[in-house]
Specification:
133 residues, 2,3-Dihydroxybiphenyl 1,2-Dioxygenase, domain 1, two-stranded antiparallel sheet, 3 helices, 29% strand, VOC domain-containing protein, Glyas_Bleomycin-R_OHBP_Dase
């Protein structure tokens, strides 16, 4: 089975398409790969997010990460995480672009600096900066 999957794509239905595009493309800097429109107001945009991984976590780990990063259970079943170079600066930019800070950048036991945000599109997002390369 090695090498069969070429890409992972997360498809998200967002009520405020323009706000979500402004946040993810313009504020976070995800480059636009393609955009399409159709009948009526049908629109979709595919944004490049670098390397993708699928992280599977059991409920105990899900609760542990919430506790470490936020101090209480907050994340829904799905959460999007983006690795960034400067978590405090990217968090400030994300907030200016419409995200709400759930928890500021916090150093984790696994040596990353993680911020939690509620982003446009009703998405729960982690911005993380690896402190050790």
């Amino acid at each position: 089975m090695t090498g069969r999957v070429r890409q992972m794509r997360l498809i998200v239905e967002v009520e405020d398409f323009d706000a979500a595009v402004a946040f993810f493309r313009d504020a976070l800097g995800l480059p636009e790969e393609a955009a399409f429109s159709g009948d009526g107001d049908e629109r979709v945009m595919i944004l490049e997010a670098g390397r993708a991984t699928l992280e599977l976590a059991n409920p105990a780990h899900h609760r542990y990460v919430d506790d470490v990063e936020v101090g209480r259970p907050v994340a829904p079943r799905f959460r999007i995480a983006f690795e960034v170079d400067d978590a405090p600066a990217r968090t400030a930019e994300a907030t200016a672009a419409g995200a709400r800070v759930v928890a500021p950048p916090t150093e984790t036991p696994w040596r990353s600096l993680n911020a939690r945000l509620d982003a446009p599109g009703d998405l729960h997002v982690t911005l993380f900066e690896e402190l050790e390369r």
